[in-house]
# Entry
Amino acid sequence: MTIFEKIAARQIPAEIVHEEDDLLAFRDVNPQAPVHVLIVPKRCIPRIGEAVASDADILGRLMLAVGTVAAKLGVKDTGFRVAINHGRDAGESVPHLHIHLLAGRPLEWPPG
Ligand code: AMP
# Structure
């Protein structure tokens, strides 16, 4: 099981901020902004570039959850950024698709 599957199964703790049937959002353990949440499918898709047509439904729901979570955490109006890291050059460290939602401070562009 991946770390995020274990969080979904409540085998390891996390600060969960939002849950739906097939997805979960919880605070990143090493936050890079005052608000830093990971939105993940409960079923592991290793990374975005390996998603397949049958994942379209959950991918859509993950994207819709972004707005729901941003509103819940009070950052929808002030703004936020979402990021998905795929592979070595992007710094991916957990092989389970996750959307980073970052907010709570001005976010530089372009990112490093
Ligand atoms: P990435 O580098 O895009 O693969 O992002 C993985 C993220 O998962 C990093 O920001 C980590 O801080 C975060 N992370 C790793 N383990 C945990 C955990 N047990 N609970 C919450 N976040 C975690």
